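Continuing the batch. This is chain 6 of the set; chains 1 through 5 are on the previous pages. Same settings as before, nothing changed between runs. Recording input and output for traceability.
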Amino acid sequence: MKNKIHSMKWRIWKTAFEIFIETFLGLGLLLAITFILQKAGYISNPNKVYLVLDSNKTTLTDIRQTMKKYPYDFIVFDRRTGKIVASRYQKNDKDNYYLAKVKNKSYINGTTSYTISSNKLYSLVIRQNSVPEFTNPVLRKFSYNQISYIFLIIYESLIIIIAIYKLIHEISKNFTAIQKIALNMGNKVTKDYPKSKIKEFDTVLKQLYQKSNELSTLIETERIEKEDLSFQVAALSHDIKTPLTVLKGNIELLELTNPDKRQLEFMESMKNSIQTLENYFNTMINYTKLLNLNSISEEINLNEFIKELFLELTDIAIVNKTNNRLKVKTNLKKFHANVPALKRALINIFLNACQYADKSNPQVSVTVTEDLKFLWFEIWNNGAPFSEEAQVNAQKLFFTEDKGRSGKHYGIGLSFAQAVAVRHGGTMIITNLVNDGVSVKLGIQKF
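Output for chain 6:
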């Protein structure tokens, strides 16, 4: 059977209606209990009873038989002797009966009245309360009205708490369903999404599951395209290597023919161009490998990683005739990352820093810090600041200010570093420091 779906407004009104109906039922229950207790003689009826004693016919036995029908306390006085000849009363209440007898008229004390009726032989004083009370002497210490109020307060509190809890539980259940699909967004959903009885939640769930399937399809399509790109780049690199190898062989043969100075310059230029092509395709292959990177959960010892990394960076600094230094400002021992990808990204940033450092006194530094969420690698150089265009586009694939692509800058290094940071749940920040060079910070999640 298909579940009926209603709006949130309807659901809230339903809760209010449930509270109203259950309150009405609670009042009915209290009245029913009161009625049953009255019939059973456990509480008195607030309706007053006035008995008229017939001067000739009413005997003491008649009075006793009549008072058995009522739950009221009473005292029968003998008018000649003034003694009590029949009774049902509490000792602490005795003076009130005598007061009514002496005055020979009804007497009211608070909500309690002492009604007197007399004939020639007897005086009957009946104690009656205008509010219900227990007939049992022990229970009479407790006000039946107060007990009724306490019952209603507790009952009302319970039905409100239960009704609101049911509403909150239903809403919470829907939010949990939304949270579940949101946290698994992009995964293929093969079964029907959990239906909600609230229209607004059901619409959101339906859209989320639909978008999750669409995103899953897009991710799968992207994965296939990346694999295809990686394959094509690798195949292209392989195809290019064959003619490059032939060119290098021909250059070597030409060098054996005793070429003149100008020919040697041409051959040297050809060799440099071949090397540029090889470097370019090797860089492209590294980038496409990153596109298919899945596992980044390897636990790494930070000190060992920094030690190995700095050895490689020092070699790069020596080749580029750059002064470099290392600062470690963290006590972190372990972190999770893909070592080859992270190392390549940091080397790319460092190499870029060396190439753009001040030519007269090139300075580059590496600083390792952390905050609550990220492990940061900051690479600084004392070169000229990034241009406005470069700051905006430096992280884009193939962007370079070296329009001629001299062989040093392919527009892949910083894009690769940015992609590595994103794959590790982090980011890369480029900052121009006022009169103090350029800082590139790569941050990754620590765990």
